[in-house]
């Protein structure tokens, strides 16, 4: 078969790998001029490693990603340092990267609240019954079982930070998945995620997968006889099967032949965007060497997360520059989407001074800002019933996106998992 894949993110590339291995001709269309999708990175001339445009790391439980890397023979390039994650409370930062550390967090008070926090954490770690949890909102469940204080100190800031105006609507299975599938140790690839994406693309090209960069797909239409036609950059080409890995919204625009019900399902899915600034600094921001600062919205910080990347991987990889991320998940239309880089930096500068009072504007060497409308799907009540099927009602047309990896939260691990799952379904259908 001749198969097209739309998108050279990790989902599209993982699917291409399996489909090509099964002997099919595979062409990947990628609108950007690089591979890696949301996990892509960039590099200054004096850096040896790339920096992801949006902060990225893996968890030790990311078995689909780590399994793929193992198959590719590159496990020796995966690094799992143990960076420090902290949470803000009353003017200070406290370690916050395990249930045990969180138990020592002073924001929880003493006594019963700590016990409730511990039991709730333990229960969520042990249960596999996410289907019951998706029937109730995280807001309601946490308030009931963890209690007002624990919820408001620990879990509400996380929900508000990630989901803004939708925080009360998110189901409890999302929270379960986060607690279930995360580890204290965080991983990356030698050279950064972009290095891994480039190596993977090179491997695919070596297997004779064609990767067309700068190829923007406008339409995918059903042919009158059989198969599908793709219109990319004005050139129309026939394929037997097509796998699309873009956002549900784009999928709906690209494929007008989809029946109304499937289209409606795509368009009803909610998601948050993200605005992330990367800064290269002359000096280390966190004197204590902290990597990840959780900054609850009600503390007046102008961002949700401040991440000092060079407290995770060495600054030696970046010619001595200190790399810091400042980012937020935001609803579409938020003013950060319309600010230019300089205006956004002005908003963020006071936060750096709060983290390190010695910080001055002249520490900033350069900034890069990346914005996306599609950063974080929002899982509402009973979300499992609203997930679009990978096999669409249009024959030969398949869809695999971040919005379908539920109950898990989106991530490159689950992009690989769903990409390979889609490839399996496509291969099975082709046998029938
Ligand atoms: C702020 C932020 C932080 C994150 N942190 C982490 C993390 O720490 N760890 C982690 O594992 N994951 C993280 N993720 C999630 C991770 O980046 C995604 O889950 C993953 O990259 C999704 O891969 P994908 O292949 O499904 O989609 P994408 O990477 O979105 O790939 C889709 C591709 O389709 C292309 N495309 C779009 N339209 C067209 C068109 N018309 N024609 C052709 N091509 C098109 C896009 O350019 C893109 O390359 C984060 C994401 C964000 C936004």
In short:
This protein is an alpha/beta fold.
Commentary on this structure:
The chain is of the alpha/beta class and 432 residues long. The chain has 13 helices and 20 strands. Helix 6 packs across helix 8. The longest helix is centred in the last third of the chain and has 20 residues. The mean pLDDT is 94. The chain binds flavin-adenine dinucleotide.
Summarize the helices and strands and which ones pair or pack.
Blueprint (H helix, E strand, L loop, with lengths): L1 E5 L3 H12 L3 E6 L10 E2 L8 E2 L5 E2 L3 H10 L5 E2 L5 E5 L2 E4 L3 H5 L8 H15 L3 H4 L4 H8 L2 H16 L8 H9 L5 E4 L3 H14 L3 E4 L3 E6 L5 E5 L2 E5 L1 E4 L3 H7 L5 H9 L1 E12 L10 E3 L10 E4 L13 E9 L10 H15 L8 E15 L18 E3 L12 H20 L1
Parallel strand pairs: 1-2, 1-14, 2-10, 7-16, 14-20
Antiparallel strand pairs: 3-4, 5-9, 6-9, 7-8, 11-12, 12-13, 15-18, 15-19, 16-17, 17-18
Helix pairs in contact: 1-9, 1-13, 2-13, 6-7, 6-8
Features:
five-stranded parallel sheet, 432 residues, alpha/beta, FAD/NAD(P)-binding domain, 20 strands, seven-stranded mixed sheet, 13 helices, binds flavin-adenine dinucleotide
CATH class of the domain at 2-69 and 192-269 and 386-431: Alpha Beta
Total helices: the number is: 13
Could you tell me the radius of gyration in angstroms?
22 Å
Main sheet characteristics: 7 strands, mixed
Please state the average pLDDT score: 94
**Oligomeric status of the shown chains?**
single chain
What gap, in angstroms, lies between the N and C termini? 13 Å
How big a fraction of the residues is strand?
15-25%
CATH topology of the domain at 2-69 and 192-269 and 386-431: FAD/NAD(P)-binding domain
Look at the structure and name the CATH superfamily of the domain at 2-69 and 192-269 and 386-431.
Answer: FAD/NAD(P)-binding domain
What small molecules are bound in this structure? flavin-adenine dinucleotide
Low-confidence stretches: none
State the secondary-structure class: alpha/beta
Q: Overall 3D geometry?
A: globular
């Amino acid at each position: 078969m001749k198969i097209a894949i739309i998108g050279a993110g990790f989902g599209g590339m993982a699917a291409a790998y399996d489909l090509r291995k099964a002997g099919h001709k595979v062409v990947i269309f990628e609108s950007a001029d690089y591979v890696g999708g949301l996990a892509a990175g960039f590099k200054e001339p004096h850096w040896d490693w790339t920096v992801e445009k949006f902060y990225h790391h893996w968890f030790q439980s990311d078995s689909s990603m780590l399994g793929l890397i193992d198959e590719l023979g590159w496990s020796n390039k995966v690094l799992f340092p143990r960076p420090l994650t902290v949470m803000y409370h009353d003017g200070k930062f406290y370690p916050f990267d395990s249930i045990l550390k969180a138990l020592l967090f002073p924001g929880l008070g003493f006594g019963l609240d700590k016990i409730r926090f511990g039991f709730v954490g333990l229960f969520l770690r042990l249960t596999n019954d996410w289907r019951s949890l998706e029937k109730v909102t995280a807001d309601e469940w946490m308030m009931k079982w963890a209690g007002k204080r624990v919820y408001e100190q620990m879990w509400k800031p996380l929900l508000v930070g990630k989901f803004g105006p939708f925080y009360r609507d998110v189901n409890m299975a999302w929270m379960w998945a986060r607690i279930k599938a995360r580890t204290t140790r965080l991983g990356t690839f030698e050279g950064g995620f972009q290095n891994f994406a480039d190596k993977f693309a090179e491997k695919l090209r070596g297997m004779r997968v064609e990767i067309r960069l700068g190829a923007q797909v406008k339409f995918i239409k059903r042919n009158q006889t059989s198969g599908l036609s793709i219109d990319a950059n004005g050139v129309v080409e026939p394929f037997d099967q097509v796998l699309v890995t873009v956002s549900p919204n784009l999928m709906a625009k690209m494929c007008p032949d989809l029946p109304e019900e499937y289209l409606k399902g795509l368009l009803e899915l909610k998601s948050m965007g993200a605005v992330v600034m990367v800064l290269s600094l002359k000096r280390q921001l966190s004197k204590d060497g902290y990597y990840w600062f959780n900054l609850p919205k009600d503390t007046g910080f102008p961002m949700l997360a401040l991440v000092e990347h060079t407290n995770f991987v060495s600054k030696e990889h970046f010619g001595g520059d200190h790399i810091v991320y400042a980012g937020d998940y935001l609803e579409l239309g938020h003013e950060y989407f319309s600010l230019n880089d300089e205006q956004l930096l002005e908003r963020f500068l006071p936060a750096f001074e709060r983290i390190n009072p010695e910080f001055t504007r002249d520490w900033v060497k350069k900034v890069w800002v990346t914005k996306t409308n599609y950063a974080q799907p929002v899982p509402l009540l009973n979300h499992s019933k609203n997930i679009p099927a990978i096999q669409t009602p249009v024959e030969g047309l398949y869809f695999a996106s971040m919005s379908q990896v539920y109950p898990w939260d989106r991530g490159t691990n689950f992009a690989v998992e769903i990409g390979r799952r889609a490839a399996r379904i496509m291969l099975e259908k082709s046998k029938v």
